[in-house]
Amino acid sequence: MTKKASTTTSVDTSQSKDPLIGKQLGDYRLTSVLATGGMARIYKAMDYKLQRQAAIKVLAQDEVDSDQTLTKRFQREARAVAQLEHDNIITIYQYGEHEGVYFLAMKLVKGKDLAQELKRLKKSGHKLDVKRALRIMEQVASALDYAHAAEVVHRDIKPSNILLDDDDKAILTDFGLVLRTSVETTMGTAFGTPRYIAPEQAISSNKALPQSDIYSLAVIMYEILAGETPFNGESPMEIALSHISDPVPAPRTKNKDIPESVERELLKALEKEPEKRHKSASDFIKAIKKGYGIGVEAKAAVPVPSPSPTQMTSPSIVSESSKALLENWTLPKAQTTPKGTTSGKRSRIRLLLFLLVIVSSVGAFLVLNGRGGSGVPGAPITLMYNEFNFTMFNGGDYDLNVFELNLVRGVNGGGDDFSGDRVRGDTLPSTICFRVSLQGKQNDAPPQCTKIQSAELLTNQSLLFWRKETDSDAVASTFEVQYKGQVIARCNTVGRGEDAECRFNWPVPPPTATPPES
User: Fold this and answer.
1) Which residue, 36, 68, 94, 208, is most buried by CB atoms nearer than 10 A?
2) Is 62 labeled as catalytic in the residue annotation?
3) Which residues of the chain fall short of a pLDDT of 50?
4) pTM to 2 decimals?
5) How much helix, strand and coil, in percent to the nearest 5, is found in the chain?
């Protein structure tokens, strides 16, 4: 979707021919057309009750008639973006349907999109300043990392989907092709914009993953620095095939002022195999900044704690790390290296490490399978929280149904409780975390978390159930962990500058039926 924002409020005569101009959709009256696309049209609208302007995305009726899945994708976009409360992601106001017209109301961003800005600069013979470009891309990377942590893959990252307001703040928009990786798949067709599409996504959209968005982000970075995208052609199919099979042209052949270290990072992010790319969008942008010698704020080093019984409980953590190590090791061939050489020593070290991993994995499985560190049956749970962030970690070897979980400070139903039905899918898988944070104050996930299953941002500090309301409030000195109406743990609340952990064992799940032996 190409979304343009305008400060103009008048409606010209050509727009008056649009049958939707002047119509009321939900709380919004459409006043003018901002942009048109293949599947949708964007209107400027006004909420006269709140005296607030908005951008309204409306599905084209002929597209709806020809594609019955389009309305479901549109609803999926609304639901996915509504969960993403991030400063650099478009804000959703309302979603609805009126007389067969499906619409999505969003914040109106007054400014231009990145595609328009790049076109304007190119027309005048200039390029986007590197420092400015990195400030913009850093914001987009932050938005992408946040979406990926919530298991949302955008699948259509391109300059026209990056809005720039009058203060050069970047807003990521148009999640029309969004894929929620934990619960959704798509047909085996390719969706996306050919010039920016990742190889795996060009083959099939259901192969898209966070690294696919990182690839698209790297194409934009390549375009900014080199003056053009890596692959161009006479047809979308030709361009898509180039992404799949052709080597990426070295950026320095198009702009010799690009540092060699920056070229290496660009080519890494544009690897054909997703696992060879950067782990996160922010890692990619930080690497580009480093290549240009632009300072990256260093985070204070966080000491890695010694593994606790809870952290060591899950065999899946051990087995996954073992797998990663083993994939990078090669066992020595017999009598191929002279005794006493460096290579021989390295091979013996690899063999010792191989044996150590196997012994550790087996030992952890035998001792800790299905039990907490104390030997008590049930999944070991760790709650980790500070004044702004709360994380729940499932250290067991089975998935938890958290639908009937309640975290209660003070009186149950007091408005500041957190219920498990707010966790995506009502389930917290083994070794996975869910997080609740105060908006704008979220920090890095604890090292125990192999993945964030669900994240929720709150805007009201008084709703942080793990916080003390006042230092003298006895009721707020603890919060309860309730499951099916029963208290299974009571944990201390924290005040300003404090952090805490609370550990307990989840109730044992009901046994699964074992079929009789034949």
Assistant:
1) 208
2) no
3) 1-16, 181-190, 297-376, 471-474, 510-518
4) 0.54
5) 35, 20, 45
